Amino acid sequence: MGNEMMWPSRELVIQQEESTLALKAELHRYIIEQLEEDGLMFEMERQEMQPHVHDYVRQYFQQHKEVNQHLNLQELVAELMDEIVGFGPLQNLLDDPNIDDILINGPKNIYVERSGQLSRISLRFMNDQHVLRVIRRMISPIGRRIDESNPMVDARLPDGSRINAVIPPLSIDGPCLSIRKFKKEGLTADTLIQNGAMSVAMHQLLRSCAKSRFNILISGSTGSGKTTLLNILSQYINTGERIVTIEDAAELQLRNGHVVRLETRPPNSEGHGEVTARDLLKNALRMRPDRIILGESRGGEVLDMLQAMNTGHQGSMSTLHANSPRDALVRLEMMVTLAGFTSTESLIKQIIATALDMIIQVSRLPNGKRVITHIVEVQDVADDQIRIQELYQYNQQTEDFLPVDAMSAHLRKKLEEGL
Question: Labelling 354: which of 23, 167, 207, 376 has CA 20 to 30 A away?
């Protein structure tokens, strides 16, 4: 064998991890008991409590000399503090600015997304109850609950991050938690250009269109960057305009001076008190908005949004889940129909075509890179189809943004008048 290094087997590593998790669980129980016994549980902030927790850990090790003490004491105290006043194993992930999404599929399968790439990490919870305890700690300050009678919940953390949780019996392999982290410092247009998400010419066009009150729909898949682009375009709105935003979870970071932010509300545990995006949109029309920004079009509110675009609220914007501009138009038609609008397909197409000026398609490529793949002008209805004209298209092979066709005379005139 010589001096060959003997690596521990996978079984031994798993045993050590299980032993460490069990020790942390026992320490957590012991410290909670000590804090409650000393009357410190609800009286101290984290910084004040930490030295006490440090003393309790040392006290525990003195009482249990047989316990393996190979763990770093400072790291152990920090983890225990996360369990007591933070969000347990997730706290470091939430504090990491390079992580965009956190996905928990049961206690032993945790994934994070960095720079568009999803990867599994070694972090683990102790068991299902440990995951459930963290979920409940997240949602309790906002008055939400999760249990067998209410096994799904959507919520927003105090920092703006969005969470969705599903627990058994609906999730088969244990509690599942999805977290979309909120970035305090939103990406800028310069950052998108530097990252190759769009060209300088495309940015100049989009900035001019936003200023000139084009009605814009941003289409793309989950996590493709729709809200990021909507945030950037909203910065070009004249500060004298009154904007009303409507979102399921407030993510937009508009810096305009005159903004009214509205957020939907889910039903309570008895099924009452729900306020939908459509409710808020109907109310927004009574608030004298110059523009309406709908965070996401996903249901009956689409009909009201299109009508608003057609009745004087020029420059309104929204996002929608779709894989291409043509798919986005099909989804709009479907949602207008599901909203209970009883009319011919031809009229529905006409409403959409006259309401929208532009569709911007954003995509996340297999390598995690986010790009604007299409900018199209919505024109009119011909041969029972909504006509669109491609203005820019992304070539994935050359990674170039290619101008395709010129903007129509109608929109060029609108652009000139707006500028």
Answer: 207
CA distance 231 to 225: 10
Residue 1 is assigned to a structural domain of this protein: no
Q: Which of 51, 83, 115 is the last residue of a domain?
A: 83
Whether 286 is in a domain gets the answer yes
* Cβ pair 273, 267 in contact under 8 A: yes
Total domain count for the chain? 3
- Is residue 345 one of the residues assigned to a domain? yes
CB atoms within 10 A of CB 296: 20
pTM value is 0.78
Task: Determine the Cα–Cα distance for residues 276 and 243; give it in Å rounded to an integer.
Answer: 19
Distance CA 231, CA 250 (A): 12
Q: Which residues of the chain have pLDDT under 70?
A: 1-19, 21, 28, 32-33, 35-46, 65-72, 85, 185-186, 269, 419
Query: According to the model, what pLDDT value does residue 1 have?
Result: 47
Rounded Cα gap, residues 51 and 31, in angstroms: 12
**Pair 292, 213 in one domain:** yes
Quote the domain boundaries for residue 156.
86-182
